[in-house]
Amino acid sequence: MPERYMSRKIIFTALFLPLFIFSGLSFYRSRHLKEPVVAGPGVLEVRKLSHYFPGIKGSINDASVYLLGNGGAGQGSVLILGGSHPEEPAGRLAAWIIVENAVVNAGRVFVILTANPSASTSTRPGGAYPPDYAIKTPWGERKFRQGDRWSNPLDQWPDPEVYIHYPSRQQLAYMDIRNQNRTWPGRAKGTMTERTCHAMTRMIIEENIDLVIDLHEAELQYPVISTIVAHQKGEDIAALASMMISAEEGFQIGVEYSPVALRGLSHREIGDHTQAIPLLLETPEPFLDATRGKTDRELLLSGKDEFVMKAGKHGLLFEKIDENGWPIDVRVGRHLSSIIQILRVWTELHPEKPIVMTGVPRYTEVIEKGTGFYLKNPSEAPANRVFYE
Amino acid sequence: MATIITVLYYLMVGYFALCFIWNFLRSKKWQTEVLYLLALLPFLLRLFRLK
């Protein structure tokens, strides 16, 4: 080969290698970023999901389960799920605040901060997502993985041509075999995402959990937004909670009924396959809208986007948006107040099985002080109270 | 079955990565050299389980 060709190839290779190394390092760091959790005063125990189903042991989706309460069986109990879709950060942050702050006076509260850990380790291909984001606190910043809607293809692959849901055999979009909110109730010998749901279903049954609250966010162009999606078993709780929230918390939230014909969703399958009442909460997240502008950390946390606003002016949205956007504090606060009111309604309807949780900030408090105000400093906590997601 | 497909897939990714490197070395046009390197990048990221 002539020398001039070889010299050029060496120069191109020298330019290529830093590109590969920097992109590779960025992806590696994003996938392996450790998120500290300071177990609050209410946390009794942290166990793994494989405690309920060994088939998930050793996989990335062997999620941590935080148990708050006095540990006794036969009481009211609730499971709060954050991070079924990790790209919807308000759900994870609300669950984080509960684990780090809540005191449970009656009943048991199970919290999973990252219900699909695998999905928290990748971002949407072609979506130009940031790899992570940081929440400002009085003592510094807390960094979180951005995540995606679907399990990481590095952990679960290949996808089928058509995803056939188990056990209904309903045909769903191929990639939704990696969507944790399409794989309920799961199956023991299924894919990793199905096994994760199976483990959580086993937990719900074994722990005799009464309520499951699955925390989500939605794009403003999606009709199921700013709402509680309720299985028919939970229609009364959802309706009463919606009224209480609208009357007392300073924001409006609607109620949608879980469609019987749409399979694989938590608000459908948990209600059909376990004794628990599932409720799914949606807050608005402009970051997810297809018509968004620059997809960066600022948009994720401020929820301000001129293009989504323009879509709103053309009547294309199912939720209002103005120049104030939908800041993360508003979204986290909505989730927390909704949980507080749902537990209050549950306790009023089932006084023999109360669930009473204190120490969790409400909507107005989160807006006033910020989400970061309620995140604890891991470096000041005893080592045995710090866990990692 | 999924494990077998995954192994075959990684073998295929490795094969195509080698093809890109081979073609890059044989190419005499700078435009195609750049093209082969850019095409190689996602294959390497997958092969090393980075993305």
How would the blueprint of this fold be written?
The complex is a heterodimer of chains A (389) and B (51).
Chain A: H1 3-32, E1 36-38, E2 43-48, E3 64-69, E4 77-81, H2 89-101, E5 103-106, E6 108-112, E7 132-137, E8 140-145, E9 163-164, E10 171-172, H3 192-206, E11 211-218, E12 227-230, H4 235-248, E13 254-257, H5 266-273, E14 277-284, H6 297-302, H7 306-313, H8 328-349, E15 356-358, H9 363-369, E16 386-388
Parallel strand pairs in A: 4-6, 4-11, 11-14, 12-13
Antiparallel strand pairs in A: 1-16, 2-3, 3-6, 5-15, 7-8, 9-10, 12-14
Helix pairs in contact in A: 2-8, 4-8, 8-9
Chain B: H1 2-26, H2 30-47
Helix pairs in contact in B: 1-2
Report on this structure.
The complex is a heterodimer of chains A (389) and B (51). With 389 residues, chain A is an alpha/beta fold. Chain A has a single domain, classed as 3-Layer(aba) Sandwich (Aminopeptidase), CATH 3.40.630. Chain A has nine helices and 16 strands. An eight-stranded mixed β-sheet of chain A has the order 2-3-6-4-11-14-12-13, with helices on both faces. In chain A, strands 1-16 form a two-stranded antiparallel ribbon. In chain A, strand 12 (227-230), helix 4 (235-248) and strand 13 form a beta-alpha-beta unit. In chain A, helix 2 crosses helix 8 and helix 4 packs across helix 8 (328-349). The longest helix of chain A is centred in the first third of the chain and has 30 residues, at 3-32. The model of chain A has no long low-confidence stretch (mean pLDDT 96). Chain B is mainly α and 51 residues long. In chain B, 84% of the residues lie in helices and 0% in strands. Chain B has two helices and no strands. Chain B has helices at 2-26, 30-47.
